[in-house]
Amino acid sequence: MHDLIIRGAQVFDGQGNSPVIADVAVDQGRVSAIGQLTGQAREEVDAKGLALMPGIVDLHTHYDAQITWDKTMSPSPALGVTTTVIGNCGFGIAPCPADLRETMLKNLSVVEGMDLQALLTGVNFEFESFSEYMDQIRRIGPYLNTAVFAGHSVIRTAVMGEAASEQSEPTDLQMQAMRALVKDAMDAGAIGFASSFSPNHSGFGGRPMPSTIATENELRALTDVLGECERGVFMMATGSRASTAVMESIACDTRRPTFISTVLSMYNEATPKLGLEYYDQCAAAQARGNPLYMLTSCQPLSFDFSLTDPYILLSHSAFDPIKGLNAQDMAKVYSDPGFRAAFRENLKHPKPGILFLGNWSNIEINVTHVPEYVQYEGMTITQVAAKLGLDPLDAFFEIALKDQLTTQFVGKFFNNNDEGVAPLLKHSAGVITLSDAGAHLIYMCDAGFGLHFLGHWVRETGQFTLQEGIRRLTSHPADCFKIAGRGRLVVGAAADLLLFDPQAVGISKLQTRHDLPGGGSRMVRESTGVHGVWVNGVKVHDGKNYVELEHGPGAVLTQFSQ
């Protein structure tokens, strides 16, 4: 008798082959048979009219802290994800000496848009070393298969303490200690090494995140550990310093798969050809034998924000004076003509890689508490400024000031044009991911990127066939990150499965939940058209609710292909 049989589904193997109508049997966490099965099972699911695919592989998440209090890793399982990678951009919580716990969490709260009180209340530190953190995840029993990056900023902080955000050049001893911690993490099963030079990555109180002030020599010394180990992948939020040429040379030196994440590679109407240039440069690097890839977002990049927490604007130097201030003092800065003049100057000469380039048509009023402004909800700042007879920049701040800075704006900056985004998604050098799940919870929830891809890019626009769309969400990302045995629905593979209705699959609008530790709120999305999610053969979500499990079925992934 089988453990599970899912009967009569349209079965997609995740490798791009045409689907077949078949039954799928699962035993001991693995797919044991596919075909017209006559045997019985302890659990049977009628899947006629539905599609069955491997679970979505999400390479870019930030569940490092949340996993210590939430083994479900919500909302990703509800959105079809079965395998995830955490520690991206070099931001996480391990290794972490006990006396630096608050420093780590304060930085994480800002750079990843997390509720600080939730972090201070919720994170359960049962570790100091990276290997102890991996052991803790095993004890927790996550719902998702989980791989963990060794992180540059984390390791820099663990070695240098508070000076990690101030001292660009480590001492020789500090460099040796950082290299040793990267090696320790790799020995403990890290999937690779992650870092960031992004100008958008600021830490607590406006201090830079540690890796962003590191030298290129330091970055190379740490990535060299991957080459010495002859395993692992390298992921980086590049900014402008780590150009494709620099990243290619690292890929060449280490012989390890190297991945770029940058807003510069997203479609932007101000520089419509720039994104595609990044992809073409990566393809050229691959043709030279250097494994360089672009991490690709399939969703519009948008952020909900207010001027009490203007995350998307902090990379402009004009905003330096507001960092660390309370709302009342922030309002004084925003009212200052000198501040506005400085911001205007920033917008005339924007730094590469920042989020807001000065197009006020990309920012809308989401929610305002000023009665005469309610009529403007859903309108762009450009439109509202015209009605108020103000310059858009002045209108933006005056609207917020009249609302005591509580106005909620939504910024829609990149990937907002399907015609411009489609070539990026189809490019051979791209890997679809970048959900940022677990992060920026105050502003957004892109954890449902895979269901959005199936609903929008497959069903609605027809840019991909269903079998190819599924491949791009499953075996392709798994193979690129060397995650062996995942992203496939074939006999012998791990039974990570997503059962869904192709005609209804998608994601809901943003919803606010007040379920973080300490009562904090977050933005989430729910799935549509999902009928079940299994991880290693165990159902974790039924399409509406999580299945309550004492110990989740997710594996802590430590073995990767070469």
Tell me the major beta sheet: 8 strands, mixed
Spans of at least 5 consecutive residues with low confidence: none
Beginning-to-end CA distance, first to last residue: 36 Å
Quickly give the structural class.
alpha/beta
CATH topology of the largest domain: TIM Barrel
Helix count from the secondary structure assignment: 16
Structure characterization notes:
The chain is globular and about 75 Å long. It has helices at 101-111, 116-122, 130-140, 152-160, 172-187, 216-229, 244-254, 274-287, 327-335, 337-348, 381-388, 392-402, 418-426, 449-460, 466-473, 475-480; strands at residues 2-11, 20-27, 30-35, 41-46, 51-54, 56-58, 81-86, 145-151, 192-196, 233-237, 258-261, 292-296, 301-305, 363-367, 408-414, 430-432, 497-500, 506-507, 511-513, 522-524, 527-528, 530-535, 538-541. It starts with a strand and ends in a 21-residue tail after the last strand. It is 30% helix and 20% strand. Strands 1, 2, 3, 4, 5, 17, 22 and 23 form an 8-stranded mixed β-sheet that branches. An 8-stranded parallel β-sheet has the order 6-7-8-9-10-11-12-16. A 3-stranded antiparallel β-sheet has the order 13-15-14, with no helix packed on it. It is built from 16 helices and 23 strands. With 562 residues, the protein is α/β, with parallel strands linked by helices. Strand 2 (20-27) and strand 3 (30-35) form a beta hairpin. Helix 5 runs parallel beside helix 6 (216-229), helix 11 packs across helix 12 and helix 14 (449-460) runs antiparallel to helix 15. 52% of the residues are buried. The chain has 2 domains: 56-300 and 415-486, TIM Barrel, CATH 3.20.20.140; 304-412, no CATH class.
